[in-house]
Amino acid sequence: MGQSSKKNEFCRVFAEAAAVHKQLLTAFEKECAGPLEKAGQMLIDCLEAGGCIFTCGNGGSAADAQHVAAELVGRFRRNREGLSAVALTTDTSILTSVGNDYGFEDVFSRQAEALVRKGDVLWAFSTSGTSPNILKAAQTAKAKGALVLSFTGRKNSPLETLSDACLCLEGPTASVQEIHQLAYHILCDWVETHFAERS
């Protein structure tokens, strides 16, 4: 493929992605502003009460889970105290031992059983809303008195049913994940602003 053809292909893909994003953002404004605001308050209330935010997801959603935890523990835009967040996707010894001894379906729920406490928040990423290990983690967290925040890409999914707040946008997986990233950056900014102004 020549340089001009590559450029044209890049522009075509970018234009298609921008069109999908425009559609998703229109839906976001109509359907997701309320859930996003509820999610932000959930996160702030959890941290104010001394709780912890636990994140989980598979594949690209695992990367999102880790990204969120890093923004909260480290910082997003401004200096402030570190905020309590743990990505359940990062300890390879736990993931492989639980996966081997119990099954992959249990890799997050076993950690939730051990670590999650009443008042904590489990923040689950699943574009399908049907991942067995995510659903089991959400069930375990709720049984322990935690709240569940989910980011999905399918309406009326089993994960949405289990969630106290759910941000759901339907569309191509890659585009949904890109909008999810924008949404969790908004949430990280809200949470950070709250604690930065308090200190």
List the helices and strands and how they pair.
Layout: H1 3-31, H2 33-48, E1 53-56, H3 60-73, E2 85-87, H4 92-101, H5 109-115, E3 121-126, H6 132-143, E4 147-152, H7 158-162, E5 165-168, H8 173-198
Parallel strand pairs: 1-2, 1-3, 3-4, 4-5
Helix pairs in contact: 1-8, 2-8, 3-8, 5-6
Q: What do you see in this structure?
A:
The chain has 199 residues and is α/β, with parallel strands linked by helices. It has a single domain, classed as Rossmann fold, CATH 3.40.50. 60% of the residues lie in helices and 12% in strands. It has helices spanning 3-31, 33-48, 60-73, 92-101, 109-115, 132-143, 158-162, 173-198, and strands at residues 53-56, 85-87, 121-126, 147-152, 165-168. Strand 4 (147-152), helix 7 and strand 5 form a beta-alpha-beta unit. Helix 3 runs parallel beside helix 8 (173-198). The longest helix has 29 residues, at 3-31. The chain is globular and about 55 Å long.
Compact summary:
This protein is of the alpha/beta class and 199 residues long. The chain has a single domain (33-198), classed as Glucose-6-phosphate isomerase like protein, domain 1 (Rossmann fold).
Corresponding CATH architecture = 3-Layer(aba) Sandwich
Overall number of domains: 1
Q: Could you name the CATH topology?
A: Rossmann fold
Low-confidence stretches: none
CATH class: Alpha Beta
What helical percentage do the residues reach?
Answer: 55-70%
Q: Please count the helical segments.
A: 8
Listing every helix as H and every strand as E from the N terminus to the C terminus, the arrangement reads HHEHEHHEHEHEH
> What is the CA-CA span between the terminal residues?
55 Å
Strand content: 5-15%
Number of strands: 5
Radius of gyration: 18 Å
Strands side by side in the biggest sheet: 2-1-3-4-5
Mean pLDDT: 91
Largest sheet data = 5 strands, parallel
Shape category: globular
Indicate the structural class: alpha/beta
